[in-house]
Amino acid sequence: MSTVADLMGPDGSAKTLHSQPKRQALTVVRLRASDWGVLKMVRLRALRESPKAFATGYQTECRVPRSVWQSRLTAATWLIARTGPDHEIVGVACLTGPDEPGEQNLVDAGRTRYVEAVWVAPDARRQGVVRRLLSSLEAEARHQHIDELMLWVLEHNRIAWEAYRHLGFVPTGEEQPLRVAPGRWVQERCMRKQLV
Ligand SMILES: CC(C)(COP(=O)(O)OP(=O)(O)OC[C@H]1O[C@@H](n2cnc3c(N)ncnc32)[C@H](O)[C@@H]1OP(=O)(O)O)[C@@H](O)C(=O)NCCC(=O)NCCS
């Protein structure tokens, strides 16, 4: 099976993971540490477009320095999806690394990772973009000998919930309150997908 790591160049540069010989071919690539500007741009775009889907906000992330964007790229696997003649970015998804704060709470942190920061541009939705992004993340997770993926979804985000369910994630039953603004809390719900 092709994995993200298999498809990295010797200099660590991103190569195409998947491509289709169609007019609107979709490609999925991994970002390198030097791509921090691309990551910042797509994350800010996602936060501005879907402010209620994420645990952090546009204004907060605007203030994040370059060194933090770079360390996010080295600590985790970030994939973007591109399409069209201009290779427009239409989606992003992240697989956390072993040393990120949330991982320490996991029962078996060595074998479990979180999927985070999933977003698809509105014009590209319902065309299988997240299906492709998550399939690539799963391939990378398997390559890293990860047994299980987990993620959190805010309770009002029914579309994301349904999309993850359709792609094989199941509710764990765990819920927790998340502070989304001063004095404003929402519940988030956990889902998991066994890879083995
Ligand atoms: C949730 C989201 C990532 C889905 O991305 P997408 O590329 O449109 O999803 P896909 O086209 O790959 O669809 C995969 C499956 O999800 C389900 N799905 C996707 N959108 C759906 C919708 N609007 N209603 C119902 N089911 C939906 C379908 O079952 C679909 O499978 P199918 O096409 O075989 O029916 C996208 O809507 C999005 O970016 N939303 C805003 C940001 C967000 O909520 N991120 C998640 C944070 S946890």
Outline the secondary-structure elements:
Layout: E1 26-30, H1 36-49, H2 58-62, H3 66-75, E2 77-83, E3 88-95, E4 112-120, H4 129-143, E5 148-154, H5 158-166, E6 170-181, E7 184-194
Parallel strand pairs: 4-5
Antiparallel strand pairs: 1-2, 2-3, 3-4, 5-7, 6-7
Bound molecules: coenzyme A (COA).
How would you portray this structure in words?
It holds the Pfam family Acetyltransf_1. InterPro entries: Acyl_CoA_acyltransferase, Bact_Acetyltransf, GNAT_dom. There is one protein chain. With 196 residues, this protein is an alpha+beta fold. It has a single domain, classed as Gcn5-related N-acetyltransferase (GNAT) (Aminopeptidase). The chain has 5 helices and 7 strands. A 7-stranded mixed β-sheet has the order 1-2-3-4-5-7-6, sandwiched between helices. β6 and β7 form a beta hairpin. α1 packs across α3. It is globular. 29% of the residues are buried.
Label this structure with key terms.
196 residues; alpha+beta; disordered N terminus; binds coenzyme A
CATH superfamily name?
Gcn5-related N-acetyltransferase (GNAT)
Q: Show unreliable segments.
A: 1-23
Largest sheet: 7 strands, mixed
- What structural class is derived from the secondary structure elements? alpha+beta
Number of domains: 1
Strand fraction: 25-35%
Helices, by number, come to 5
State the CATH topology: Aminopeptidase
Order of helices and strands: EHHHEEEHEHEE
Question: Distance N terminus to C terminus?
Answer: 15 Å
Q: Helicity, in percent?
A: 25-40%
CATH architecture classification: 3-Layer(aba) Sandwich
Whole-number average pLDDT?
A: 87
Number of strands: 7
Given the C-alpha coordinates, what overall shape results?
A: globular
Strand order of the largest sheet: 1-2-3-4-5-7-6
CATH domain class name: Alpha Beta
Rg measurement, Å: 16 Å
Bound molecules: coenzyme A
Keywords: Acyltransferase, Transferase
Domain N-acetyltransferase: 26-196
InterPro entries: Acyl_CoA_acyltransferase, Bact_Acetyltransf, GNAT_dom
Protein name: GNAT family N-acetyltransferase
